[in-house]
Amino acid sequence: MSDKRNYDAEFCGNLPIHHINSIQDYGYLIVLDNKTLNVIQISENLSTITNEAPEQMMDKHLSQWFSQQDVDNITKLIKGDAKDRIPVNLMFGSDDNQLNFSGLIHVKNDYTLLEIETALKDGQKSFSDVFQEVRQFISAMESASTLEEVCNVAIKQLRQVSGFDGVRMYQFDSAWNGTVVAEEISGTLESYLGQTFPASDVPKQARALYLKNPFRLISNRAYKPVRLFPVINPLTNAFIDLSDCNLRGVAAVHLEYMQNMNVSASMSIRVLHHDKLWGLISCHHIEPKHPNVDMRYLFEWLSVEISNRITAILSQEDYQQSAFRLEKRTIITDLIYSKDDIIEGLLDDENLNILSLFNAGGVVVKMGNRIESRGDVPDKSEVYNLMLWLEGKETEKVYTSDHLSGVYEEAKAYEKFGSGILVIPIDGRNGDYIICFRPEVIQQIKWGGDPEQVIKFDKDGKNYHPRNSFKLWLQTVYGQSLPWSNNELEIAESLRNFIFEFRTKQLYN
Questions:
Q1: Using one digit for the tens of pLDDT, what is the confidence trace for 414-427?
Q2: Which CB contacts under 8 angstroms, 24+ apart, belong to 159-164?
Q3: Which domains are delineated in the chain?
Q4: Is pTM beyond 0.85 here?
């Protein structure tokens, strides 16, 4: 296959997973009217602990099942500043038959979601034990100096803490495909290290939910979904939004996906970089597995530590590259001043010119009636056609592409040395440009299964299934260059501003 396709399937991305209207069966959901604290919606399994039918519980005050102290605390939280994922400990039932619950509160405009599950204290580690594990984890992370080391250390430590059969780190690319960059597995789990999974495996609406919820737990793919009663929220007259609920039910297609991977439990933990989703840590277990609430809070904490460490390393790399390019840019602008000529300043120094500044293989500079080039560039007629195409785009800012033939078909003729371009418009109205070319970098992608087989529809066109094979599927991608970094774009824009000011001074002197 010659082109790198976009595998962020529109169908998968449009499934309303936040309105799934059911929960997993390891907990209970209560929806309260903020004004009255009356129950307006519940998960039907709440009947197993109240011994009341769902319709009997409607419009009852929260104090029917919780102590006045708990009710006062919940009232205070609803009126407070914090709104999402507020942890609480609650006592459910009468004095002679009390149950301890761990819970999360999510405060909305008109109603509050209270998700609760039985608090399991047996076998829990002491605070000092957990603190020692966290301290060891952070120490190991701080000793890692490269991105690869951080990912490997994080995965190894998380597997020790969690006890999952397998833990993997996925890093997203610019098209949201996820590559396994670190892995710790045991038992019969298959290795996916170095393999890439299409964006449709974590579609856009699922990625959006990770910005609201730091982790996603499915402790048993064979769980029995618990419906909500009533189906429609009486305050909004719509399905309730379960985006930030841990208990949120799972789409059937994802449960089937887990089955095809031969795992019964999974837990995914987000990794953020500058508040954007950078990757996911995916934990899998062959048998059902239910980390207790405290373990999940620990994972949430460690997710922040991993994100911070990765961000620190990437920021340091960006700073070093920025300083390196800024130094080169300063030397080039000094040359332009000393020669009093833009083209000579950009091109004449063989060791330090615009090619080295942008890691390019060739460059064409056109200003007025002058046109000069260095390195590997298309022939004159092809360059003129490219400039006419750029004029048609009315490019006023720096323009880049790492797959030029994908947007400009004529570029197929010179893909080997011109798969990527960086264009600095000097005067687009007169066709004056600096065009840097990057050569083709042939890529071989190791997909975890055929990315074309995202969803299979039955003959009825209604029922659908995920792909059932994760067998290594190789794809060779042609016609693409190394991508242009944000820092290169910033340097290019600053160089464009400098050239504009320099030309303006020349005109007036």
A1: 999 999 999 999 88
A2: 159/184, 159/283, 161/133, 161/137, 161/295, 161/298, 161/302, 162/267, 162/283, 162/291, 162/295, 162/299, 163/289, 164/265, 164/267, 164/283, 164/284, 164/285, 164/289
A3: 19-118 (3.30.450.20), 340-441+480-508 (3.30.450.270)
A4: no
